[in-house]
Amino acid sequence: MTMKDHVLIFDTTLRDGEQALPASLSVGQKIRIARQLAQLKVDVIEAGFPISSPGDFVSVETIAKEIKGPIICGLARAVEKDILACAAATKPAPRPRIHTFLGTSTIHREKKLRRTQEECLAMVAAAVKLARSKCPDVQFSAEDAGRTERDFLCKVVETAIKHGASTVNIPDTVGYTTPEIFAAIIDDLMNRVPNVDQAVIAVHCHNDLGLATSNSITAVKHGARQVECTINGIGERAGNAALEEVVMILNVRRDHFGVTCGIDTTEIMRASKLVREVCSMPVQPNKAVVGSNAFAHSSGIHQDGVLKARSTYEIMTPQSIGLLENKMNLTSRSGSHMVRNRLQSLGYAEKDLDLETFYPKFKALADKKGTVYDDDLVALMEAPTLEDIGDTYKLEYLNVTGGMGVIPTATVRIACEGKVKQEAASGDGVVDATTKAIDRVVGFPIELKDYHLDAISEGREAQGRVKIVAVASEGTFTGVGTSTDIVEASAKAYMDVVNKIARMRKYAPKLGGKRARAPL
Ligand SMILES: [Zn+2]
Known about the structure:
About 40% of the residues lie in helices and about 20% in strands. It is of the alpha/beta class. It is globular.
């Protein structure tokens, strides 16, 4: 196999995926995902959009400093201040990349940029040249390429390559194209752009019509050698092409595609679960490759076949994506070294583990639950706990009364900067009563937009995870709370929001205004 037969996997979970979440991830959360992406051996990590906010800049810079292995890439519009910020943020990486982009379709040129074709070509040339003067590895994207006139797209690609872009990306920004049409676009570029052999052609497909994966792999068949994707397919609107789907198609159907990629597929499940947990974005059970039913056979005929020979109804093994069967589960009798080993096998680095504080939490959960599954461990590691440093408000006591024929009431006691306040409230249910009682103590005007309860592990004593989305005058916040008691989980999630608002009130003036969103 030569480089010609190798497809680069460009992961944009931390840029395209992250920008679609209701609230930004913290630097620590992004580092954790980036570390797992490095374990997965992605070729490029798009770590963020540095100019969009001071927080994004710091995230990209920290990932560039700490993550070894993949190329670390940042996004920049085709303007000087974006490119300079991106160059500065990615600079600490051993292999940095600047990814600059410009809208090229008629609608983008006329409605958004108000530029002629010639002016756009000049902007492409200037942006790529400036980026190349700051960084040896430059990628250019023709935003909305799927709706760009073919002749003009050819000129854009030629211009970007001529001025030093070594990767040119063809995004289907709005998820409008179909496999045959996309194949024709890639064929045209391969046949009509004179210097196309001097760059890697990349694709970035959105899933608005459910075609992101199909479009991406069809482009590979027609010569694209970099696929942009995200874990679990998260991203703007209906999301991006899912990394696990693209990679497993290339692996399972190597007979058809004849190309390789460098991904360690046994890390896929771990990456999928980490992203679900950190981003509070569950995947549907029937999701290809990583859904909880993806390897479950329910029909009797299928089960019988699989028992006789797995390959009758199984085109890939659960082991190939890192889904291990029959493994030992942890209980309250498991020692701290076993907990440490399991956490490390789940992708946590030694330096992230503070067993002295974590182990008692593990024991408390194991005593309540009996068996502690991997999902529980990850939830326990990722859940914002009330003891977290930096929380202004601490819930010290919660008592609720509910049931048939009883008015639901809640009493809470909350500590804040040395003072303790207690309030009680009644509501439509115990959760409603609890949030009202917390409101009385804290006094923030919070509007609850979404409340979601999930069982995150197996068994009767499964942990419940409550995820809420709330709107306050400071913006939109997500809160997550985990407990074997759903009222307690709800209270924790609500307190998570309260503390995020408190943090925003303290620090927001220093961090500047709201962040911009990248449109790719
Ligand atoms: Zn995108």
